[in-house]
Amino acid sequence: MIADSLLYSVYLIQFVLSVFLGLFMKYTYLIIVILFSSLSYASETIDLELNMKNTGLAYKKAVQASQLTEFNTAIDEFIKLVEVSKTAKFYKKPEQSVKGLDKVLTQARLAKQAANQQGLTAAKVPLKRIDDLRKKYHKLHEPPGFFELLFGK
Question: What is the tens place of the pLDDT at every residue in 122-143?
Fold first, then answer.
């Protein structure tokens, strides 16, 4: 009788443990799946070409601004878009690309500071440097020419 109740207790403990571990594993698996899917969603690739076009438009609005509020709105949008561009995946020389974007951000912040402290004309010099940086770093991402595709570099 004691042996039967002891055996019954052992089976009951095994059953409870198997149910508990089964649920534990199921929920652990679910949590891991959710974590990894949210990480992949966070690192979703951006449309760099579209983002750069919008960045160029914001830059143009900043350059053409005639009022300080108009300038601040445009330069804030420009800074935000460049920050987004930094999260993109660069296939050709990614370190140099991010370094170039950091330089652009520095000049944009200098332009904003100069405009707010000294007026819009003071922002022209950093804005010109942004254009120079754009020309310099766009060369990194120019598509290969016809002969380069055929024969390589």
Answer: 999 999 999 999 888 877 666 5
